[in-house]
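Tutorial, part two.
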Amino acid sequence: MTERADRFVTLLLFTFVGPFMGTLAVLILALSSGGGSSSLAWEGVPSAILILVMMGYVFGIGPALVTGIVYALIPHALQRIVFAPLYGVVATWAFFEIAGLVSPGFSALGQSGAMWLIGGVAALGCAAMARLMGWTPKHDGG
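Running the prediction step on this input gives:
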Protein backbone atom coordinates (compact mmCIF):
# COMPACT_ATOMS: atom_id res chain seq x y z
CA MET A 1 0.00 0.00 0.00
CA THR A 2 1.00 3.59 -0.39
CA GLU A 3 1.91 5.74 2.60
CA ARG A 4 -1.41 7.58 2.33
CA ALA A 5 -3.35 4.30 2.33
CA ASP A 6 -1.33 3.04 5.32
CA ARG A 7 -2.17 6.19 7.26
CA PHE A 8 -5.87 5.92 6.36
CA VAL A 9 -6.03 2.26 7.40
CA THR A 10 -4.27 3.16 10.66
CA LEU A 11 -6.91 5.84 11.29
CA LEU A 12 -9.67 3.30 10.65
CA LEU A 13 -7.99 0.80 12.96
CA PHE A 14 -7.84 3.29 15.82
CA THR A 15 -11.42 4.45 15.22
CA PHE A 16 -13.10 1.06 15.05
CA VAL A 17 -10.85 -1.22 17.11
CA GLY A 18 -9.83 1.38 19.72
CA PRO A 19 -13.18 1.39 21.57
CA PHE A 20 -13.06 -2.41 21.78
CA MET A 21 -9.51 -2.23 23.18
CA GLY A 22 -10.74 0.32 25.72
CA THR A 23 -13.61 -1.99 26.63
CA LEU A 24 -11.12 -4.79 27.26
CA ALA A 25 -9.16 -2.44 29.53
CA VAL A 26 -12.35 -1.61 31.46
CA LEU A 27 -13.19 -5.29 31.80
CA ILE A 28 -9.70 -6.10 33.09
CA LEU A 29 -9.86 -3.18 35.54
CA ALA A 30 -13.28 -4.28 36.75
CA LEU A 31 -12.24 -7.89 37.23
CA SER A 32 -8.98 -6.98 38.95
CA SER A 33 -10.60 -4.52 41.35
CA GLY A 34 -11.92 -7.36 43.48
CA GLY A 35 -15.37 -5.85 43.55
CA GLY A 36 -17.10 -9.01 42.36
CA SER A 37 -18.49 -11.64 44.66
CA SER A 38 -17.75 -15.33 44.53
CA SER A 39 -21.45 -16.02 44.00
CA LEU A 40 -21.50 -14.19 40.67
CA ALA A 41 -24.47 -15.16 38.51
CA TRP A 42 -22.58 -16.31 35.43
CA GLU A 43 -25.74 -16.44 33.31
CA GLY A 44 -25.81 -12.63 33.28
CA VAL A 45 -22.20 -12.20 32.18
CA PRO A 46 -22.71 -12.35 28.38
CA SER A 47 -25.39 -9.66 28.43
CA ALA A 48 -23.27 -7.53 30.79
CA ILE A 49 -20.30 -7.82 28.42
CA LEU A 50 -22.49 -6.89 25.45
CA ILE A 51 -23.72 -3.79 27.29
CA LEU A 52 -20.13 -2.94 28.24
CA VAL A 53 -19.00 -3.21 24.60
CA MET A 54 -21.88 -0.99 23.44
CA MET A 55 -21.05 1.62 26.10
CA GLY A 56 -17.39 1.35 25.10
CA TYR A 57 -18.29 2.37 21.58
CA VAL A 58 -20.69 5.12 22.70
CA PHE A 59 -18.05 6.78 24.88
CA GLY A 60 -14.93 5.59 23.06
CA ILE A 61 -15.43 6.19 19.36
CA GLY A 62 -14.84 9.96 19.65
CA PRO A 63 -11.56 9.75 21.58
CA ALA A 64 -10.48 6.82 19.38
CA LEU A 65 -11.12 8.87 16.24
CA VAL A 66 -9.11 11.81 17.62
CA THR A 67 -6.26 9.49 18.66
CA GLY A 68 -6.33 7.84 15.22
CA ILE A 69 -6.13 11.21 13.48
CA VAL A 70 -3.17 12.24 15.63
CA TYR A 71 -1.34 8.93 15.18
CA ALA A 72 -1.99 8.77 11.44
CA LEU A 73 -0.88 12.35 10.77
CA ILE A 74 2.23 12.63 12.93
CA PRO A 75 5.61 12.17 11.27
CA HIS A 76 6.81 8.58 11.00
CA ALA A 77 9.62 9.27 13.47
CA LEU A 78 7.00 9.84 16.18
CA GLN A 79 4.87 6.79 15.29
CA ARG A 80 6.40 4.66 18.00
CA ILE A 81 4.47 2.24 20.12
CA VAL A 82 5.94 3.70 23.32
CA PHE A 83 4.51 7.14 22.48
CA ALA A 84 1.02 5.82 21.61
CA PRO A 85 -0.33 5.80 25.19
CA LEU A 86 0.63 9.46 25.56
CA TYR A 87 -1.28 10.30 22.37
CA GLY A 88 -4.26 8.30 23.64
CA VAL A 89 -4.29 10.04 27.02
CA VAL A 90 -4.02 13.54 25.54
CA ALA A 91 -6.58 12.85 22.79
CA THR A 92 -9.04 11.37 25.31
CA TRP A 93 -8.67 14.36 27.62
CA ALA A 94 -8.97 16.84 24.72
CA PHE A 95 -12.02 15.10 23.25
CA PHE A 96 -13.94 15.20 26.51
CA GLU A 97 -12.91 18.79 27.24
CA ILE A 98 -14.15 19.92 23.83
CA ALA A 99 -17.32 17.83 24.16
CA GLY A 100 -17.77 19.45 27.59
CA LEU A 101 -18.34 22.76 25.85
CA VAL A 102 -21.55 21.25 24.47
CA SER A 103 -22.52 19.20 27.53
CA PRO A 104 -20.79 19.81 30.90
CA GLY A 105 -21.12 16.14 31.83
CA PHE A 106 -18.57 15.19 29.20
CA SER A 107 -15.98 17.53 30.70
CA ALA A 108 -16.39 15.88 34.11
CA LEU A 109 -16.07 12.45 32.50
CA GLY A 110 -12.89 13.54 30.72
CA GLN A 111 -11.29 14.60 34.00
CA SER A 112 -11.39 11.01 35.20
CA GLY A 113 -7.98 9.40 35.37
CA ALA A 114 -9.63 6.08 34.52
CA MET A 115 -10.74 7.47 31.15
CA TRP A 116 -7.19 8.62 30.44
CA LEU A 117 -5.87 5.17 31.34
CA ILE A 118 -8.41 3.52 29.07
CA GLY A 119 -7.48 5.85 26.18
CA GLY A 120 -3.79 5.17 26.69
CA VAL A 121 -4.21 1.39 26.82
CA ALA A 122 -6.44 1.40 23.73
CA ALA A 123 -3.92 3.53 21.81
CA LEU A 124 -1.10 1.20 22.83
CA GLY A 125 -3.03 -1.82 21.55
CA CYS A 126 -3.96 -0.14 18.28
CA ALA A 127 -0.41 1.09 17.67
CA ALA A 128 0.91 -2.43 18.25
CA MET A 129 -1.66 -3.85 15.81
CA ALA A 130 -0.78 -1.22 13.20
CA ARG A 131 2.90 -2.12 13.55
CA LEU A 132 2.22 -5.86 13.30
CA MET A 133 0.15 -5.31 10.16
CA GLY A 134 2.95 -3.21 8.62
CA TRP A 135 0.90 -0.01 8.41
CA THR A 136 3.42 2.02 10.42
CA PRO A 137 7.19 2.05 9.92
CA LYS A 138 9.50 -0.12 11.95
CA HIS A 139 12.13 1.79 13.90
CA ASP A 140 15.51 0.21 14.43
CA GLY A 141 16.35 2.16 17.56
CA GLY A 142 18.67 4.54 15.72
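DSSP finds five helices and no strands in the chain. In part three we will examine how such features are distributed along the chain.
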